[in-house]
Write a structure and sequence with these properties.
This protein is an alpha+beta fold. The protein is built from 19 helices and 6 strands.
Length: 462
């Protein structure tokens, strides 16, 4: 047994160190870059810079990133223009190394400004930007090799492509594992709640109205996420698996309006196709622009000393983190969907329907007078919606209110909240202890004792 394991590890290391054609990596750069160009343009055209960053009076912080501050309106527009330019340069492979790092840093900054807008696919985009920034994706099918021909490479170590595949595998597999829960598989929740909104869709509407559809979709979704990478890796099933990728993400994109994520995954999973497949469409584009095709010299990328001694160990640490961090929820007591402790950054994609109403009260310690807060005065609609069901955001808002009212003359303000939340159609329950002065509570990695236990009984679903 030990010999077999050792042989497997040795073969795996050998496979990762073997050389392979760079075409799939260059293709990923182009496709991902185009998605970033589209996403950034869409963000600006729809006016989301104003709506997300400029209009709100309060920006919720990620724990550990409280130092991130929102830039001035002019700087925010400049940042998004620079992000768009960097994405164009990444797509073209021009001044790639600088452009890729600028793309990663600026996109990540914009996502860290406000916790309200956290989505798994934004997290994935940030990680993909980081991986591209450290990979030699510009050494083929790029303007950089026209500018500097010595950069051109035809072969790279296989790990340069495998790291993208591995990150994609983590996203899908963890999303599938997260679906293995009773609400999703046994009760078809939250799909049973969401699908009625799509009954009027032409052709597919009657299918969504069938009472068994939510259950079928739930099981198929779980099996798809858990197995799709296996079928993409296996050549005989690759084309059919990719057809499933296109169908799955097209349907979810139509049903749930989840932005650019379907495009990113439909385009990104093409990295599983062979170099020969990518070379065909690259050759077609080359001929389209009437660029003379030259006999390709087989040049192998030789990682530098820094690559070998720093990048590879760093990637090992990176993937160890990616594999372990989503499991941190097991360290917390209670229902993760209720407490949301360990929920984020775990590839739990659209697993619950959760909504809340939060009423805050501020009390003057000296006079004893207490008043109700009008949340809409401080928060935009989406901020209020997200805050009212997430304990760490409730805590941040309470501390903001304490600071605000202290400046308004309230003596040592105490802040408490009555927060009622419904999870997957269950009756609303108190989320947090309404007697706790939240202004005195400190956030940490530890369990939030002021979160009330969740009543799991499905008998109380609406």
């Amino acid at each position: 047994m030990a010999i077999s394991i050792a042989r497997y590890i040795k073969n795996s290391v050998t496979a990762w160190q073997a050389t392979t054609h760079i075409a799939p990596l260059a293709a990923f750069r182009v496709i991902f870059g185009l998605c970033m160009v589209f996403s950034t343009t869409r963000f600006m055209v729809l006016g989301w810079i104003e709506d997300h960053y400029i209009t709100p009076k309060l920006h919720f912080k990620y724990f550990g990133f409280e130092f991130i501050e929102v830039a001035s309106p002019a700087a925010l527009y400049a940042i998004h223009i620079a992000l768009l330019l960097a994405s164009i340069l990444v797509t073209l492979g021009l001044f790639y190394r600088v452009a890729a790092w600028v793309q990663f840093l600026l996109f990540t900054y914009t996502e860290l400004i406000d916790l309200t807008y956290y989505l798994n696919h934004y997290y994935y985009v940030s990680l993909a930007c980081l991986l591209l920034a450290v990979l030699p994706a510009h050494r083929y099918f790029s303007l950089d090799i026209l500018r500097k021909p010595s950069l051109k490479t035809t072969y790279v170590p296989a790990w340069c492509i495998y790291v993208i595949m591995l990150q994609t595998a983590i996203v899908y597999t963890y999303a599938g594992l997260a679906k293995i829960n009773s609400d999703w598989l046994l009760h078809a929740l939250p799909l049973k709640i969401w699908l009625p909104a799509s009954y009027d869709i032409p052709v597919l509407g009657p299918l969504f109205a069938w009472k068994y559809t939510p259950y079928i979709f739930s099981w198929v979704g779980m099996l798809y996420d858990c197995t799709i990478v296996i079928f993409l890796l296996y050549k005989p099933t690759r084309v059919w698996a990719y057809a499933a990728v296109v169908f799955f993400h097209a349907v979810t994109g139509i049903l749930f309006q989840i932005g650019v994520f379907p495009l990113v995954m439909i385009g990104g999973t093409l990295i599983f196709f062979s170099a020969q497949w990518h070379l065909r469409w690259m050759g077609a584009i080359t001929r389209l622009f009437k660029t003379p095709e030259k006999t390709e010299r087989n040049v192998t990328f030789a990682p530098s000393f820094l690559h070998k001694k720093l990048l590879l160990p760093a990637l090992c640490v990176y993937f160890a983190f990616q594999l372990l961090f989503p499991w941190r929820y097991v360290l917390y007591p209670g229902n993760m969907f209720w407490t949301e402790e360990g929920y984020r950054f775990g590839w739990r994609v659209m697993l619950m329907e959760k909504a809340g109403t939060a009423t805050f009260f501020v009390k003057d310690t000296k006079t004893g007078k207490e008043g109700e807060v009008f949340n809409s005065f401080f928060l935009c609609d989406h901020q209020e919606k997200q805050m009212a069901m997430q304990p760490d955001m409730i805590l941040q808002y309470a501390k903001f209110l304490a600071g605000y009212y202290e400046k308004e003359g309230v003596y040592q303000p105490q802040v408490r909240a009555e927060v009622y939340v419904t999870l997957n159609s269950r009756k609303s329950q108190l989320l947090i202890d309404p007697t706790v002065d939240l202004s005195k509570v400190k956030d940490s990695w530890g369990h939030k004792e002021w979160i009330l236990p969740f009543d799991e009984r499905l008998a109380e679903t609406k």
